[in-house]
Design goal:
Low-confidence stretches: 1-19
Mean pLDDT: 79
CATH topology: Fumarate Reductase Cytochrome B subunit
Strand content: under 5%
Order of helices and strands: HHHHHHH
Shape: elongated
Distance between the termini: 36 Å
Length: 219
Amino acid sequence: MTNRPPLNSLEATAGDDRHPRRWDPVVKTTHWSIVAAVLVNALVTEEGSGAHIWVGYALSAVLALRLLWGFIGPPEARFSAFLPSLRHAFRHVRNIRAGRKEIHVSHNPLGALMVYVVWSTLGVIIASGIAMAGPPPIASLGQPGTPPAAVERSDASSDHGDEDEEHKDRQGEDGLWSEVHEIAVNILYVLILLHIAGVMFETRRSGREILLAMLPSRS
């Protein structure tokens, strides 16, 4: 009886290093859509504006699609192909130090950990953003300023003086979520830099075209 490697390793055979890694269209689309959303909200939209919030909701939809694809997508895109494991990550580091190369059809163990950390950070960013913004801001699309939920709270407090204290409490909650949101965004920026550095290092170490495999033009 032949012992098969666990699905979460999905290591290729020795001859497979001649063939570039390939990702399916859903993985590529969600990857670059997340990149675009982060860049747009970091460099283009104004924080708190309707456009900024809408990009955040689009980001949440894209992330949800990628997570769903982790259950129903092709083998290399499923969670079972790159389960997070500190033991495997440490083994991968030892292999790097020893100069040993392992070819993975999906993410290598360090890349797998990075993926899950990035997704978790995006989840915190999205959740804290929704906590501050409330429902999708249809009426305020493109209008910078206070999110609709905060406007409604302000109107209510002006009509009912006895709700001033409640209004202050909600402002305090918004301040807490704002701080969480900002910290998570800054962590994401650091993770992005580490991710880029990791891709460059692994490309040079393994000789595989890791970045090119994620380009939309690659089939």
